[in-house]
Each structure stands twice: as C-alpha cells, then as structure tokens.
Amino acid sequence: MAWGIILVPLDGSHLAERVLPYADAVARATGATLTLMTAVENHQDGVGARLPGLRERLEHGARDQATQHLERAATVLRSWGRTVSTLITSGRPAEEILGAAERLNAALIAMATHGRGGLQRWLVGSVADKVMRLSHRPTLLVRPTTDQGPLQPLSLSRLMVPLDGSPLAEQALPPAVEVVRGAGARLLLVRVEPWVATTLAATGEAAALVNMDELEAAVAREAEQYLAEVRGRLPTELPVDTVVLRGSPALELITYAEREQVDLTVMSTHGRGGLERLVLGSTADRLVRAGLPCLLVRPTQP
Q1: Rounded CA gap, 31 and 148, in Å?
Q2: Which of 107, 204, 206, 275 has most Cβ atoms within 10 angstroms of its Cβ?
Q3: Are the C-beta atoms of residues 270 and 278 closer than 8 Å to each other?
C-alpha cells in the first residue's frame, strides 16, 4: 500500500496522546507523514443555536485551545524526526475524522480508544468505535493506560498477523510486511484452530464415532502446512515465525500476544465469516477491547 499520510485524531486529553508513539513508529517504518487533527464542537444545537454570538466565542476559544494542544503534540513528534502537520475542523468528531481521512486520502487513521471522557468511553457508539466500524481505511487503535509519564518513542520489534486460512484475512499481510521491513521487526504468523472435540460437543455431533486424537493431529498439521505455504510467499530475508495455537481464537491470540510481548497486531477485520464479521464480539473487536494495539485492515472482496 502507498503510505502517504497517517491521520491522528486528538481531543486535547493525555489519554488520546498515547497513540502518538505508535503512529510515530509506523510513520518511521513506512516513510509516512503525520497529520494531527482535532474536531471542535460547533455548538449549533442548544444554547449556541439561540445565541450566535456566544456560539462564535465558544468556537473561537475551542479553536485556540485545539491549536495550542496540536502544536504541543506536533513539537514532540518533530523532535523525534517526524514530518507533522495539523488540522482543526468543526463538527461531530467521528464524522469529521472520517471526512478528513477521505479528503486527505489518508493511508491510515491512528487513534486511542479512550480520550477526554476517560476509560469509560470505550463503549459502542464512542468515537473510536464508530471510526473502527465505519472507515474503509486501515485503522490503528491503541487502548491507553492511565500512566501519565512523558511520551517516548516506540520501537516495533514483534508484529503478529492472525490468519484463519481465508484470502480476506491474508489481506493484512502486505501492510504488515511493509512495517516489519521498515522497522527491522519480526513477523509472527499465527493461526488458531478450535479443538475439534469442543466443537463437536457444542454442536451435539457424535465425537465417539471418530478417533479424536487422529483428527486433532490432522487439524494441527493442516494449519502448520497452511502457515508454511503463506511463509513461502513472503520475502525469504524477512524474519518470520509460524505458530499454531488451539482453543478459542480471541482468547488464545490475546494470551499469546501478552506472553510474547507483541508490539502490534495487524489483522483483517473480516475472515472466514465474510464482510458481516465486523460486529461486536468478533475476534478483531475483542482484541482491541482487550487492550492489544491493533492495526485493522478492511479487506476488499475478491
């Protein structure tokens, strides 16, 4: 993919700024530039609608604050060597973010899952939630911690790409490979296969009619062969590990990423289930909500 502009929405909060090291790391790896943006409230409803003079003063004050905040954040990123521009718009944040991404033809939207409203904001209907579900562009989502220490540059050393055997899931590979190459990182290709016995028990099928040990081994072999085939399509010089896990996909991926200290998960928002998979509770959704930094790629249908 062409890495031109990474759009980074901020809302003036320290929590929202926690995405900056990740946006910086991806920009450093890909040569992209960064555009920091804030959408200020336009006060067209309520008291602002009845008192235009007040609305103008409120918007002017909000723009002044937004300008100061964006410039402070831009100064930090420029000190890390990035090329940064700023943008202030007026309106509803999610709609403004999506609109700005279209106008700028942004390669990526990078944002924190919580901002001014605090940790309780990561709910269905929040700004990050809407952007994740409505944008057709790759979206980098980072769940911030309450740590208010100074921002520091981040080195990406281990990137995970979950695969389920579908061409849709494999569409996460090209951007992941580009970031891995630019960052000098290692790529982890991971496939999770549910235990056959658990699946049969859940569906009420007669597990006693098959040799479960042989069937489980066959499933594992097929997954290993698939990952080996995918690895064979990638550049030979690229550092790649292939890993087969067994169990619940979301739970196993979260556990593995935490244990192996994965810096960034790059995955398609759809896999075997097709385009309808971008729903609450999907694997991608659960990984983001578990706090894993995720670069989500919206695949195109073949």
Answers
A1: 28
A2: 107
A3: yes
Q: Answer for the pair 301, 126: CB distance below 8 angstroms, yes or no.
A: no
Structure tokens at 33: 């530039």
d(CA 30, CA 24): 10
User: How far is the C-alpha of 70 from the C-alpha of 137, rounded, in Å?
Assistant: 23
Q: What is the pLDDT of residue 278?
A: 43
| Cβ-Cβ contacts under 8 Å for 267 (sequence gap 6 or more) | 161, 162, 169, 172, 283, 284, 287, 294, 295, 296, 297
Q: What is the pLDDT of residue 205?
A: 59
The C-alpha atoms of residue 138 and residue 151 are separated, in whole angstroms, by: 24
Q: Tokens 């398609």 appear where?
A: 268
Residues in the chain: 302
Secondary structure (3-state) at 80: coil
Tell me whether residue 215 is exposed, middle or buried, using C-beta atoms within 10 angstroms of its C-beta: 0 to 12, 13 to 18, 19 or more: middle
Alpha-carbon span 165 to 187, nearest angstrom: 17
By DSSP bridging, strand 139-142 and strand 158-162 are unpaired
For residue 192, the 8-state DSSP code is: E
Structural domains in the chain, CATH included, are 5-142 (3.40.50.620), 158-297 (3.40.50.620)
Per-residue pLDDT tens over the stretch 191-211: 999 998 777 766 655 555 567
How confident is the model at residue 51, as a pLDDT?
Answer: 59
| Rounded mean pLDDT for each run of 10 residues along the chain, 302 residues in total | 92 91 98 96 60 68 88 97 96 94 97 64 64 89 80 96 94 97 98 85 59 89 98 97 96 97 93 47 83 91 64
Q: What are phi and psi of 245, to 5 degrees?
A: -115, 155
**pLDDT score of 99:** 97
* Token reading at 134: 């409505």
d(CA 252, CA 229): 22
Kindly state the tokens that stand for 93.
């944040």
